Amino acid sequence: MSKKRISVENKSTYSVCTICDIGCQLRTESIDGRVNRVVAHDNPMLARNICYKGTAAPHIHNHAERLRVPLKRVGERGKDNWQEISYQQAMDEIAVKLKRITDSFGPEAFAVSTSGWNTQTTHSMDRRFMNLLGSPNWISGVALCAGNTAAVNRLTYGWFPMPDWGNTNCIVLFGHNPRKHSWTPIYNSIKSARARGAKLIVLDPRVSDQAEQADLHLRLRAGTDAAMCLGWLKVIIDEKLYDRDFVNDWCEGFEALCDRVSEYPLDRVEQITGVDRNHIAEAARIYAKANGAVIPWTPITDQQISSTSAIRLHSILRAITGNLDVVGGETLGGFNPGYIPESELALHDRLSDEQKAKQLGFDDHPVFTYRVAEILKEPTNKVWGFPYADLVMGCHMANPTNVFRAMATGDPYQIKALFVLGNNTLLSYANQHQILKALNNQELIVAHEIFMTPTAMLADYVLPGDVFTERNHIADSWSWTNRLTLSQKAVEPPVQASSTFEFWTDLGRRMGFAEHFPWDSLEDLLDYRLSRSNRTFAQFEQTSYMEAPTPKFRKYRKTGFATPSGKVELYSSILADLNFDPLPYYREGPSPDKKYPYLVFTGVREDPFFQTGQRNISVLRSRCPEPKLYMHPIDVSREGFEEGEWVNLETPSGKVSARISVQESMKEGHVRVPHGWWYPETRFEAPLSGAFISSDAVLCSDEDEFLDYEQGVPNFKGFPGRVTKSSLPRVLENSAFIER
């Protein structure tokens, strides 16, 4: 495959940063073919959208330990012994082995775990390859974060909305805590809205940064978001604060919803959530009476035992209060008319109905699988112009738990090949012990990465990937918005490195799909994606760095909604047809007891890191050198702990170690453990670089009783645990980062 080379010179280019999931547009300064600095945007409106993860990009992209040559495993899996080989040899061998496996076990025996955040995008070349091959078993971290939320929103009104930050007058944050160096553009949007008078309501067990400045802070018990929303609906319906015209004209199932809401009087909601009923009512009134209000996506609600109902309740609140597709509310953007979306590039129609039905999760947890996607095909095509809308990559996925169970046990069928791209799979989902068993049961694992992660250590082949300063791209937020944002190639990648586009194209051609991978370079593909606006990538980058169609509101008046009824489905016909409860409900999660007296709250990120990355980047690790377990002072005193003491946090699923951090902001009886910890500095001392020492994925069960029914999402937000005294793990005693 040809690669477009650039001349060596001092230059400044636009970059869409992919170190986290926000995708801020920054500027990259390079000198003599090497990234020198990543700096703020030259547009004053965008200049604040930069954090210290973004400015650390040169330290990441130029890191001495970055993978630069393909590696082939030598000896026992996971022992970190490798032979350097060429990219061509690696791809040849991978293709031969994958063909042998799919010929023996069927194409469904091949699974992929990826992350659009780290790889920026695959342009859906991964889904294209899998659909042509016949495998439906694609998973991603978006199954637990935003992608699943997009899929659930489609049940109600057929799309995933985006807040109109510039005009909203009320912001409701369910556990989400955007800060200056974490979800930075959202932090800045909230700050700007507050400056012009918008109200802020925060629902969070902690006194978070956003809660400290909120007009109203409801300290609900972890995992009770659905009950809180039902309480809000009780107030809004009883006091007739809903938009009666919209409900009458555009909603289905309002009377049934009223009956369900009547089961949640405020005294019951107070008992469930631990929040005073008067405060619940006050918050509901502020939201419902605002002239334009938003409930932004949150990584908290989408990881609970009642996740589907809670996400649906957010969508129902938006709809019945008249905040859907209006100025100041939440907008349904649709595809960008001048840019071919990844949904089309994926060729979802090429995967047969028979193979779609084999997708793991299709039968028992179908909400973000092909089973629901097929039901929504016709209305999606009618309203949005294409039958498949793979929003935030999350609407056609297999269920991760089902995939790992099949990998580990062969039930309901064998999975024998797993490819991971930009995704540290071992630490990225629930039940890390099962994931390890699953990985060890594979005949072929391929990792496409920029560093040697614990997951990559378990691979048969490790291929070095490129990074965002080394490729051209036009980002469309995975169709969550229809804005187009320019990212330019600033420097050359390592000679043996490949983009995900190159990887899947080269593999596709080796597997007999050459006619479906006709583009010889990433720029050719970008030209194709821009062809609907009669432009090439070169023309786009010469004339624009960011653009979006003029927003149109209340589009449903002409098109209806992309649901089976054409209306907002408060009573979901899809869930009813699938034999699930068509109305939202609250389901109690596992409760603390004498043995496990605390509610554990996992998945929270520290500002210097995103997901499981950046622990080997000194300028970031120095800001947060070790994992800290947050507890309230009363709990710390009762247990006899001291600030900075190493302790064990244990659940029925596993045990991890971290330092105690006494936090007045914590809710008593709750414990917060950060997400994604491993210790790259222990690579040659600890198995899998200490992946089981402090990783929160060890703690969370994915047994059926702990899963959301409709999605199969594990309950990360409030499950029982206990904390006991410990000491610094011996393997960390020589770490350059750990304080002793």
Concise account of the structure shown:
The protein is α/β, with parallel strands linked by helices and 740 residues long.
Overview features:
six-stranded mixed β-sheet; alpha/beta; globular; seven-stranded mixed β-sheet; 740 residues; Dimethylsulfoxide Reductase, domain 2; Rossmann fold; N-terminal domain of TfIIb
Report on the architecture of this protein:
This protein has 740 residues and is α/β, with parallel strands linked by helices. The chain has four domains: 11-61, N-terminal domain of TfIIb; 71-148 and 334-547, Rossmann fold; 162-331, Dimethylsulfoxide Reductase, domain 2, CATH 3.40.228.10; 598-732, Barwin-like endoglucanases (Beta Barrel), CATH 2.40.40. The protein is 30% helix and 16% strand. It has a seven-stranded mixed beta sheet with strand order 5-4-17-16-15-6-7. The protein has a six-stranded mixed beta sheet with strand order 23-25-24-27-22-26. It has a four-stranded parallel beta sheet with strand order 11-10-9-13, with helices on both faces. The mean pLDDT is 95.
